[in-house]
Amino acid sequence: MPTAPTDLCRYPIVQAPMAGGGSGPELAAAVCGAGGLGFLAAGYKTADGMYQEIKQLRSLTDRPFGVNLFMPQPSQADAAAVEVYREQLAGEAAWYETELGDTDGPSDDNYEAKLAILREDPVPVVSFTFGCPSRAVLDAFAEVGTYTIVTVTTATEAQAAQWSGADAVCVQGVEAGGHQATHRDDPYLDGTGAGMGLMALLGQVREAVQIPVIAAGGLMRGAQIAAVLAAGASMAQLGTAFLATPESGANPIHKQALTNPLFTHTELTRAFSGRPARGLVNRFLREHGPYAPAAYPAIHYLTSPVRKAAAKAGDAQGLNLWAGQGHRLAREMPAGHLVEVLVAELDAARVVLGLPAAGGAV
């Protein structure tokens, strides 16, 4: 079993697990093949769907890879607030000629079934989002040789992960695209208190724990990777940077929107899922974001048919266009080549800093 995340791959670059189709076997295999650490996103998938993707990835690469799991979420949805939001979205459903979804879907994301598969047929790395597993779960993975990573958004969450037996933490700054991985979704922190920038958070976590730290949030260039490594991170995790690659499973409309001048900035919103997530500001986010209740995953299920209909219609204004703050720096190139470019940029930055080049034995 590796003692550090850098033992898993040649370069200190992790491809973020992007649930909803972005991070599939083709993308993970391309990143692994180029010397980075590729990830499958098991969120929103059935246990068998996750297993089939693992089998496919194994057929594409013999390099170490990771699988990301969503932690089960406590039920905190206010049924009345969800119904009010349903009424507000009735016009969206009519416009896209679809029905709103059933909000009674599972809140555990098939967590136990996925754990059973991953313990029975271990993968090199398993990471967790939206909470921290119990010590028993992390110990069970250690017994089968699986390296475990817990995504955190505060120093307190990082300490809890270390205490529970995680091998490393992934520190997610507020700049990151997609869902904020907070262990407790607190609507009172929405707005100005929604999160901390990566560099400030990285410094706090580095002083709070002794286990390795992976940095994530808005990273798009090799020089930024050099910066977080210099600040004490072992590796850098990039999501939006890989979203525009041909191997990404993201909708082509989503890929094009990343650099479309029509979409000038991102915001955190509950509009699409009921949990804070960073996306490009479009019509749906502007009109419904201020009114969306803290009700994940109920709102995710409610808006799912609308989002699918918008995608089918080619309408970016009705999609959840998850993206980090650095989205305008996205580059449309093969994922393996992107890793090579990032490494070259990282090495150039290290020369300026008087540090050795990236890399090492796989």
Automatic annotation (TrEMBL):
Its cofactor is FMN. Keywords: Detoxification, Dioxygenase, Flavoprotein, FMN, Monooxygenase, Nucleotide-binding, Oxidoreductase. One of its GO terms (molecular function) is nucleotide binding. The keyword Cell membrane does not apply. The keyword Cell inner membrane does not apply. It catalyses: 3 propionate 3-nitronate + 3 O2 + H2O = 3 3-oxopropanoate + 2 nitrate + nitrite + H2O2 + 3 H(+). GO terms for biological process: response to toxic substance. InterPro entries: Aldolase_TIM (IPR013785), NMO (IPR004136). It comes from the Bacteria. CDD domains: NPD_like. Belongs to the nitronate monooxygenase family. NMO class I subfamily. Nitronate monooxygenase that uses molecular oxygen to catalyze the oxidative denitrification of alkyl nitronates. Acts on propionate 3-nitronate (P3N), the presumed physiological substrate. Probably functions in the detoxification of P3N, a metabolic poison produced by plants and fungi as a defense mechanism. This is Probable nitronate monooxygenase.
